[in-house]
Design goal:
This protein is α/β, with parallel strands linked by helices. It contains 9 helices and 9 strands. Bound molecules: zinc ion. This is protein acetyllysine N-acetyltransferase.
């Protein structure tokens, strides 16, 4: 099928769908300059630097928080400069036109919100808030960012260690109940830039009772257990796909 035929099919399904849900992953933001954490060229200091496991592992964080905060400062600098892609903005337009029920994202880069999306479920947590591991005091983004940049490791006034509300390995994902409910009620489920390798997000598409459309440039090592009753694979660059789709839909993109 050509891209024209694929977008026509997608447009038809979107027109018929009563409840469309999106799952977005790292591939959604690479065009914004946010590196894929799981890719070979992450935000890590080369082959001899700390591994992703040691950065996002609660025990190592408590033992040596400076390793995490070295990474986190670089991450925040990239996030601050990053701008949403066409696809992020297209999804925000879909929501404004009541064509999208919600977005489940595995990303922690806040780009969906920057693009104007409101119904965003950040299952791997977010950078919006940080928390003292000792007394539980919450710090907003502005304060926690300032603290991260003015101290090697930020501590609470109670001397407890402050941790951003990002989900670390072994911690429970956020909003799982709401995300599962949305997936179960959906009759169109778009998987965008997610390799569907990280559970439990990878199981959400299989809960959709309609069509699952996976848009991803490159192969996806998916198995039948993670896809719905009807799954379409569309092997395109996201921005190319959605800008072509919008030639059909003509949604106002901001
Ligand atoms: Zn505290």
């Amino acid at each position: 099928m050509s891209i024209k035929q694929d977008v026509q099919l997608c447009s038809k399904l979107m027109g018929k769908a009563r409840s469309t849900v999106v799952l977005s992953g790292a591939g959604m933001s690479t065009a914004s300059g946010i590196p894929d954490f799981r890719g070979p060229e992450g935000l890590y200091s080369g082959k001899n630097g700390p591994t992703m496991e040691s950065i996002f592992e609660l025990e190592s964080f408590v033992e040596n928080p400076a390793v995490f905060y070295d990474f986190y400062r670089r991450f925040l600098s990239v996030v601050d400069r990053a701008t949403p892609t066409y696809t992020h903005r297209f999804l925000a337009a879909m929501e404004r036109e009541s064509l999208l029920f919600g977005i489940v994202t595995q990303n922690i880069d806040a780009l969906h919100q920057k693009a104007g999306s409101r119904a965003v479920y950040e299952i791997h947590g977010s950078i919006w808030t940080s928390r003292c591991l000792h007394c539980g005091r919450e710090y907003d983004y502005k304060t926690s960012k300032k603290m991260a940049f003015s101290n090697q490791t930020p501590y609470c006034s109670c001397r407890g260690l402050i941790k951003p509300d990002i989900v670390f390995f072994g911690e429970e994902v956020r909003h799982l109940r709401e995300c599962m409910d949305m997936a179960k009620k959906s009759d169109l489920f778009l998987v965008l830039g997610s390799s569907l390798t990280v559970a439990p997000a990878s199981y959400l598409p299989s809960m959709c009772h309609g069509t699952v459309i996976i848009v991803n440039k490159g192969n996806i090592p998916f198995t039948s257990s993670i896809v719905g009753p009807k799954t379409l694979l569309m092997n395109y660059d996201l921005d190319t796909f959605f800008s072509t789709l919008n030639e059909e839909l003509k949604l106002p993109i901001r």
